[in-house]
Amino acid sequence: MRPNSSRRPLGLALVAVLSALGAPGATSAAGLSARQVADPDYRASDAALQQAIRAPAPGTRARNVILFIGDGMGVSTVTAARIFEGQARGVDGASNRLAFDQLPYAAFSKTYSQDALVTDSANGATALLTGVKTLNGVVSLDGSAKRGDCASAASARVATLAELAKASGLATGVVTTTRLTDATPAAVYAHAPQRNWESDADMPTAARQAGCVDIARQLIEAGPGARPDVVLGGGRGKFTPVEAGGERKDGRDLIDAWRRGSTGRVATPRTGAELSTLDPSATDSLLGIFGSDNLPYAGAISGPEAPPSLTQMTSAAIAVLARKPRGYFLVVEGGNIDKAHHRNDAFHALGETAELSRAVAAAMASVDMTDTLIVVTADHSHGLVISGYPPRSASILGAVPRDDGEARAGDGIVLARALEAATHQGDNPLTTAHARRSDVLVEDRVFRRIELDEDALPVALGSGHLDGRRRQGHAILLQRRGHQVPDHL
Ligand SMILES: [Zn+2]
User: Fold this and answer.
1) How far is the CA of 345 from the centre of ligand 1 (A)?
2) DSSP code of 227?
3) Can you give the pLDDT at residue 453?
4) Which residue in 70, 143, 45 sits closest to 382, CA to CA?
5) Strand (E) or helix (H) holding 65
6) What is the distance in A from the centroid of ligand 1 to the CA of 72?
7) What confidence tier does 414 reach under pLDDT thresholds 50, 70, 90?
8) Dmax of the chain from CA atoms?
9) What is the percent of the chain where pLDDT is above 70?
10) In angstroms, what is the span from residue 51 Cα to ligand 1's centroid?
11) Which residues are catalytic?
């Protein structure tokens, strides 16, 4: 966790070279014109370089560590989300900066799999949290485990960062927008040869009889000395019995078990409103499960029963953990980025990435950055590509203009005209758009999700589930196929 300050990152080495050449801010250096140094993009880049140069070398040990994981948030998703988030605020997208673009150090990590060319969330999270590469589908066990084989698990167990932190006296927490038993959060606290073993109802009888325990039970039964102090996310069904509307067949209510098994003051909020009234100074242990399955996309539900946003959960987790005497390790997952990518839904994948950026911003604003290490990364990528040569003013969710200069909606109407009609006619543009045109779906007042003409190429194109049938015979097909990746969870 402590970078060696004697080894300068490559980026800073490059900055040093540029500084020696007199490039940053060098208005008097030979060769740079006045127009050049007055150029807004030049100035923005120069300011970023100066900021990087001034960033203090990390020479002290962090007291707290927050690991943000954008699930499936590959580099192209970050680029597209940067544009999306800027355009949603009415500013230029390309030069926009997400919260984590402003962190001073950057690096790439490899989370490759032992048995597959495309990493899944189970192996990806295991790589991040244990340092060990394993098989896809396997949670915090090393590569000697066999997927779905209970007997292989016992000797394959590897410690997670959260477990190591707990053993060192730190508090720990896990926050996610998915089920708390989904692969990424599971890898924080559980060990399983099969990521799908989320509740007892998900497990084969033989595995249960052989002594393997479902992931939800592992969270609760780790005991007060090992389990996380703060747990916020979705997936209530995995923790509650069928008789109470959940999925468990063993009759256990694990939320009740958490309450009974905790020492100190326990809070178990069920809504965002309840979480907002939480008193961190009167909370020792926090378990908030806000939906039966994955949480809805950011902003999709409002009202008194609405779940909290990722940003709200992150802030609440930090407020509770910051009071712990010996520091904390917190994992925050933007899990719905991946869920949207699986549906080939760039609109929500980018919206969820923007929400992750807001959560990072909230964390940066509430912690002391001199004693808290914030890392933002992804477990694996997704097949989102940004295509063609759309004008810079084009919506990242729009279509690339055709050869004749006009992108078209599914019925052949020029797309710009269709959108204009969909958004500006009638008393309520949202409902009239749906009623009048099935191929133009207005998702909100800024962006539109559009069923495009077969020939049209979306600017931001996911490739989780391509419908190859509709793409036959077009030149674009080659480009789409070229970027298709196998499905991964
Ligand atoms: Zn993932």
Assistant:
1) 16
2) S
3) 57
4) 70
5) strand 64-70
6) 5
7) low
8) 78
9) 74
10) 32
11) 121
Higher pLDDT, residue 326 or 447: 326
Strand partners, 332: 68, 175
pLDDT tens per residue across span 349-406: 899 999 999 999 999 999 998 899 999 999 998 878 887 778 888 778 777 776 666 6
Assess whether pLDDT exceeds 80 at residue 155: yes
Which segments within 213-366 are labelled E, that is strand? 230-234, 266-267, 285-289, 328-334
Give domain limits for the chain. Answer: 10-53, 64-382, 397-482
* Least confident among 117-126, 320-329, 433-442: 433-442
Interhelix angle 429-436/415-424, rounded to 10 degrees, is 130
185-199, 203-217, 253-267: segment of lowest average pLDDT: 253-267
The arrangement of secondary structure in 64-382, i.e. its CATH architecture, is 3-Layer(aba) Sandwich (3.40)
Given the structure tokens 């070279």, which residue do they identify? 17
CB contact at 8 A, 219 and 314 = no
Gap from CA of 123 to ligand 1 centroid (Å): 9
- 182 CA to middle of ligand 1, Å? 9
Q: Which long-range contacts (CB under 8 A, 24 or more apart) does 93-96 make?
A: 93/392, 93/396, 94/392, 95/40, 95/41, 95/44
Between the two ends of the chain, the Cα-to-Cα distance in Å is: 28
Q: What is the pTM of this model?
A: 0.83
* Ligand 1 centroid from CA 200, angstroms: 23
Three-class SS state of 26:
coil
120 Cα: distance to centroid of ligand 1 (angstroms): 6
Placement of tokens 């996911």 in the chain: 462
Residues with Cβ within 8 Å of residue 212, at least 6 apart in sequence: 150, 153, 192, 193, 197, 203
